[in-house]
Structures are given as structure tokens and as C-alpha cells.
Amino acid sequence: LYKWADILKESIRKYFDNEEELNRVKKKQAYSTLGDAVLKTVLIERLDPKKKTAEEITKKKIAMERRDALTEIAKDIFDLENGEELEALIGHIYLEKGFDESKLFIEKNITEQLLLMIEKYVDYITIVKELLEKRKLKEEYSFIQEGPDHDPTFVATLTVSGYEPWKSEKFKKLQQAKHNAAENAYGELFERLEIK
Questions:
Q1: What is the pTM of this model?
Q2: Helices 2-18 and 21-44 meet at what angle, rounded to 10?
Q3: Percent of the chain whose predicted confidence (pLDDT) is above 70
Q4: Nearest residue to 136 via CA among 109, 154, 165, 160
Q5: Best label site of 39, 105, 175, 181, fewest CB within 10 Å?
Q6: Contact 157, 123 (CB under 8 A)
Q7: 34 and 94 Cβ atoms separated by less than 8 Å
Q8: Element (H, E) at 185
Q9: pLDDT tens-digit map of 144-194
């Protein structure tokens, strides 16, 4: 279980010791991007379109992209800093051993825990939308993109007429930022609108 995490850490450390900071970051991002693609490929196989509707699959895919779920697994199981490092580990395994070994690693160490988290996922964007529709209110999302085009971050703002806007934290994906803004808004909106 820890073997691959140790191998990745050592590999990245060696690389980091020998290259400039910019190259170090690019290398880690490349591993992470590759690992993200491999992880999603393995997980998508579990979303059998014969057993689920398109809407269910879309919600599951959104849940899969939650960085906090992957970060929790990375910290709890592998003693890594975050989900990006776990994706980098998967990318490293893929480059060293190929897809089948990567898939085996994911299924053995990640899949079940991540799928449990996905099942518990609350789609705040949809819940807030439905809550507002009951009161004939509309939501509007806006966002700010920061950073270079190849590595942007997003902060989303949810605006509802008559309320102070809710902002998200920074996220690598716009959908995650929107979800976080909706999650931040949900408690107050529920309290004010559902109790009436």
C-alpha cells in the first residue's frame, strides 16, 4: 500500500533536488494531470450506463471531481498532502507500470472509499436551484478566473435577489467553485425560505 507512495515521493524529491522550481512544479502537474485522467477512466467504468440515467451519471461525475474527497483519501491512507499528490502517484504508477497496474492500485486502495464518498455527495447546486424555484427566485453564478491559462483557479459567486452574495473558496475547476458557493448559501437560504 505505502510502497508506491514512497516510490513517488522519492522520485519527485530526486527530481526536485536536481531542477529549478518551475520545472519541479511542471513535473508534479504533469504526473497529477495524467493520474487524474487514469483515475477518472477507472471510476467511469463503475458508472454503468445500463443501470443509471444520464442525470445520475452526470451527478456522479461531478462528485468524482471533488478535490476534498480525494484529499481525504490521500491524507488518511497514503499520508500525502492532498488529492493532487495522490493523482501524481497514480500518474507515476501509470508511467512506470502501465494502465492495468494503475487500475489495480486504484481498485485496491481508492475506489471503494471514493465511491462511498460519492454516494454521500450532496449536490448543492441542484438543491439550491430547487429551493429557489419553490419561491419563484432565480440564482445567478458569476466567477473570477485567476492564474495562467494553463493552470487557472476560480472563485464563484452565487447571487440571489434580496440577499448578500455568497463566494466560494478558490478551486481548480469552475464547477467545484460553483458547488462551494451553493453549499455556502444553502444553510441561510434553507433557514429563510423553507421555514416560511
A1: 0.59
A2: 150
A3: 79
A4: 160
A5: 175
A6: no
A7: yes
A8: helix 174-189
A9: 999 988 889 999 999 998 889 999 999 888 888 999 999 999 988 888 887
